[in-house]
């Protein structure tokens, strides 16, 4: 169900005299969210932002997640993203709802539906250890309707690995650079491409990396233009932002 389409239909009914403005206003007042007691589910997120509300799984019980998902699905939502979800919650939810679990990304898609793939987002990692965060970014972008190219383990310690992949990098509309340790990948990529680069610092590294703070500060201090940075290990945030940029580009 497209909530934007629903609102347009409602306005058409008012225009045609099939419903009074007062009744239409009441429908709109009721529609924005539902209070489940433990959560207020935002049904108008897709109207404002183009995609359904995303459920942050960490800290919620499996039963709470189930309740939120079912209320969203009852309103027509599909491809509902559940981030940072643990295996024990998945064991419960898989028996209750249609679920596509991406273990490497710690992410699940409730009531999955095939989407179109627009543009090209490249997700690159400094090392194999950064892949969980990168997969969270990549799967998020794919579910939101973007074509994603993965370039994993192309860090600056062996920069020839990165330079051998210049073609996909140069053809990208957005690049997500995921790296721990010193986080240099974002700056290097930023100096090579002509599109926005989103740096994702990860908590991968030895003691002086301070669980990702070192990589975060390195990316924030990047001398390459066009590099923005999300929080440590925030693959979801990078994938969502990349989708926004990519799909804005696609409208030109």
From TrEMBL:
GO terms for biological process: 'de novo' IMP biosynthetic process. It holds the Pfam family AIRC. Residues 119-251 form the PurE domain. GO terms for molecular function: hydrolase activity. It comes from the Bacteria. This is Nickel pincer cofactor biosynthesis protein LarB. It comes from Blautia liquoris.
């Amino acid at each position: 169900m497209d909530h934007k389409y629903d609102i347009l239909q409602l306005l058409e009914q008012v225009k045609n005299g099939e419903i009074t403005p007062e009744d239409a206003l009441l429908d709109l007042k009721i529609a924005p969210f539902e209070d489940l007691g433990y959560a207020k589910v935002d049904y108008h997120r897709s109207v404002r932002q183009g995609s359904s509300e995303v459920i942050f799984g960490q800290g919620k019980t499996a039963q709470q997640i189930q309740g939120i998902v079912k209320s969203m699905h009852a309103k027509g939502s599909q491809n509902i993203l559940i981030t940072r979800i643990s295996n024990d919650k998945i064991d419960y939810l898989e028996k209750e709802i249609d679920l596509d679990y991406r273990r490497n990304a710690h992410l699940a898609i409730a009531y999955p539906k095939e989407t179109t793939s627009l543009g090209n987002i490249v997700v690159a990692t400094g090392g194999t250890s950064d892949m969980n965060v990168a997969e969270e970014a990549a799967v998020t972008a794919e579910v939101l309707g973007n074509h994603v190219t993965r370039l994993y383990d192309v860090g600056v310690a062996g920069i020839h690995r990165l330079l051998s992949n210049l073609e996909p990098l140069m053809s990208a509309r957005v690049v997500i650079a995921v790296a721990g340790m010193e986080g240099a990948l974002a700056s290097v990529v930023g100096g090579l491409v002509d599109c926005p680069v989103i740096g994702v610092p990860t908590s991968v590294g030895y003691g002086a990396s301070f669980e990702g703070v070192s990589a975060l500060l390195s990316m924030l201090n990047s001398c390459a233009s066009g590099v923005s940075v999300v929080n440590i290990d925030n693959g979801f945030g990078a994938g969502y932002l990349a989708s926004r940029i990519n799909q804005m580009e696609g409208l030109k």
